[in-house]
Amino acid sequence: MDSASLSCARLTGWTIGAVVLQILGLSLFVLGFFPVKPTLHGVSGSESYYKPKCDDVNVGQDSVANHRNLPPEELRSLYKELSGIPPVFDRLIVMVIDGLPAEFVLGRDDLSPTKEMMESMPYIQALLSSGNAIGFHAKAAPPTVTMPRLKAIVSGAIGGYLDVAFNFNTQAFHDDNLLAQFSYIGWKMIMLGDETWIKLFPDLFTRQDGVTSFFVKDTVDVDFNVSRHLKSELSADDWDLLILHYLGLDHVGHIGGRRCNLMMPKLKEMDEVIEKIHTSVILDDNNGSKQTLLMVVSDHGMTDNGNHGGSSYEETDSVALFIRLGGHVPKSAPLKFQTISQVDIVPTLALLFSVPIPKNNVGVVLLEILDFLTGVLYVSGLIRNVWYLFVIRKSYPLCNQYSNVYIFFLKQLNFIKNEGQCPNYKIENRNINRSKKK
Description:
It is a multi-pass membrane protein. The chain is α/β, with parallel strands linked by helices. It has a domain at 85-363: Alkaline Phosphatase, subunit A (3-Layer(aba) Sandwich). Helix content is 42%, strand content 13%. The protein has 19 helices and 10 strands. The strands form 2 sheets. Strands 4-3-5-1-6-7-2-8 form an 8-stranded mixed β-sheet. Helix 10 links the parallel strand 3 and strand 4 (207-211). It is globular, with a radius of gyration of 24 Å.
């Protein structure tokens, strides 16, 4: 009897121990695979234009609340004054081609796109070769699904795999982001296409027409519903930001993969949309007062089978094209396209439009896009980016996952110490030598 009781006690003990170990192992897996991403609360404002101190990264916070109560026009003027960098453009068109791999437009491994790809998008190729556009391989962080990638494109923050679950039930996005910054200065925004934008930013758009992204058999109506508004919206002058999110190419990939017989016609359709925007708005701006920037991006790429969500090269190789920079980017812009991080788009746009860089941004400004700035303004833009990354570093010193993003700028902290004495400088990390421009 005693022996049986002892065996039962041992069995109970082993069972309890096994359950505890299982719970610990599951907890370790969940915390490792779905880490809680630290974020800085609040939104960037006038304080972001003040130099942070090593012992206090909240310099200028006392006046932020008062500044946010300013009317949009006054706030816009304040940002322009504090920045010292005048807005380069007046309006922005963001065209998202869902699932478009950069390889289709820019090629891969220093090789040009296939002849079939180039013939399907002749207008884009002409813009790139003439220097009227500049393209990048924009590496998307996993998970490569739409919702977290849109968050990264507008906030500059890197999400986690937990966002995969929220991708099917998108909630309003409350972290600091470019759209919020634009709304503070009175921008009017229009959204056409993937309804994910409407779910992320409810009540933000002056006009909107969303379509669901989960009916993947539809490759026609999802894009027609966007394009049918083009004529009226491109001729309107009551908006500052126009978002066009085309889903058709992603759906083509889900149906038949990269080599689907519907792929080339869809690429041709997207090329024609870009041509229409460029000829009817951007080129026409030469005769008007408003200057418009067209940015064509994809949220992620796709595998040969048309899938996405993982971390393979094919899934993370998204594209970023800046069109209307012909008057600013040198005509000798290289056709060897660089690889950037998708989050680098955010600080670059913030500087181009003179708004604060969103608070949790970990991207770095694209030197090639800011190349037209004079020496002092160029360095001022870099310094502002340094300050943001410095604040994140000071606030979360153990967040080493961001180190590869800001290591370039940490090597240039002498800019902050000598911001008034930098007529000549060297950017070692990218092997670019610059002299102060005349």
